[in-house]
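Quick illustration, no need to memorize.
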Amino acid sequence: MNLPEYSLRSAKVIWFFLAVLLAGGALGFATLGKKEDAVFVIKSASLVCSYPGATPQQVEELVTEPIEREVQSMRRVHKITSESYYGLSKIQVELDPATPAAEIPQLWDELRRKVLNVQPRLPAGASAVTVADDFGDVYGIYYGLSVDGGFTWSELRDWAQRLKTALVTVDGVQKVALYGEQTPVVNVYVSMATLANFAIRPETIVATIGQQNSIVDSGEKQAGKLQIQILEDGTYKTLDDLSDQLLISSSGKQYRLGDIARVERGYAEPPQTMMRVDGRRAVGIGVSTEEGVDVVKTGAEIESLLASLTRQMPLGMELTVLYPENRIAREANSTFILNLAESVAIVILIIMLVMGFRAGVLIGSSLLFSIGGTLLLMQFLGEGLNRTSLAGFIIAPLMPTALGKGILISIICIGICDALEFAPRTREASIILMAGYIATSAPRLGLYTGGGEVTLAMQLLASAGIHISWIDYFIQCYLPNIIYSICSLAVLILIMRPNNTINARAYLEEQFAKLGPMSVKEKKATAIFVLLVILMMTDKYHGIDIGWIMMLVGFACFLPGLHLVDSKRFASLNMTSVLFVVGCMSIGAGAQATGVDKLCAESLSPLLQGTGELTTMITAYLAGIGVNFLLTPVAGVSTFTVPLAELTNSIGISPFAPVYSFLYGLDQYVLPYEYAVFLYFFSTGYIHLKHLIQVFAVRAIITFILLIAVFYPFWKLTNAL
């Protein structure tokens, strides 16, 4: 009995599991920790040691090299970079990128032990080695405590410290930091002429104050069974104590410090940091929450605590919210339901139009069950909800990457070609594989979260202060993308019109009947395929790249007991195609390494100066096509998006339509190496290069016409221009 048959016969069991998925998903959404962004761990630490008076060579030989040798014996060290200056050594320690986040604190503790071990071997005069490893601390909740001119820095600092002390007691708060504090000091102003008259040297004043203000162990006294600590309190308590300090001149006479100098309170000059809120002096209060906590709940507790404290503040002192991560996270999670409903509704609608009402409802409901199961699994794994994970639900409930989807669809396409007896590189095989690619790639431009390049571009715009909501992007881009996808398929069908037709459904049913029941070998292959899908679906959790997954699954086919592939089949591999793929993939990496991306961005900017809206869109579109020949789509987006937005803003044009045009340009691939998913479909050997160039070159021209005749007026109508 197979799984579908069991499901049909045991409906109550299936309904029970579906109810568990829905209920567990709802509970998970309510209880999972919520943050604005995913927690990230920086796997590098900085070591600093000063050695005053030493040359860079001496610093390297006596300080840097001993520390490096000690640190090299540490586990999971990937790279050590050092710089030696006059009197200063800087060492950067990078861990293996594959190091689990849970292991990082233990490794930094090990690093500190290594530093303590090497410290006695450093030369006399070298300072203690400082270890900095907290670069990943993010203060998501940020306040500004500002005051009017009637308050002193001390009063501002005292209130900031009071708020900090209260905030660290809130459950879920990991760290509270203050920014813009001024260091209080006591200034002693002396006149050289006055000192000469009293026969007192400046060094005498410095030495006397230093000796008097130092804390010295005065020892202990035994009194019977009691041990009494003797305290000699010679430190200064007030300015008057400092002013009354006696100084002895070279002639032996005694003078008060206050008689020959002016003693005043002040602050360190120049100030290390200065902060202002609305033009008023301020101290910043940053709050970092613990990993995995619900920042929405913690933020509510923080707001309740601060509300009670602000009522006690004096008039003229104000606490301003500068960055409320808790509110942003609450809004993101609140709109998640709406966005998810929109995405599922769109999927159901499209499936209904293509496959009918029943298929649309069934597939749509399966998305809800898969999401519920994912939320339930996240609860067990300790994962939290953030913008990244929420986008993942909307982007791909089952397959997180375009390459993963492309691999599965290409396998299906190859199976169809083999079943229909379409030989590789024929017109029929080319049209099937290219249709599979269009189904994988083309629709991603229609949704904000439809593709990695789109999401990256919109996030880069947001970082530059240009925001667009998910629904606004949907209004502006979904209809153009539907037209674009339909035209892509139309171009494919018109150009690659097959030489003969076949009733595919009837033929496949006939061939399926001939196959009979699955053999043992076919069951093994199915199990391997299911394992492949599971590993690709869960790449976020195990961290293994899809390329390695494919390689490991391929090796598994040679294992004893499975023996799905033998040495003869391996020897039949087309190594020319393998080398071709490797060479193509290196083009983008080589371009980035040589700085071609920056050169292209600098070359594009002058072309857009003084141009109109339509000309800017056309230029951006053509630039996207040109960038494909040198860079990967991700590299092109990361390099050009912000400069393009800034340039369009400077000439008075909304940046959205030019950026959209640039993305459509990046989607025009004429040669296989221009896109990894595209390259994978081509590397199957079923697509003839001539057919590929014919179809996609024409598609690029058709898209250019659509850009002028359809997209431009539509974006004008939807305020994208």
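The first helix runs from residue 3 to 9.
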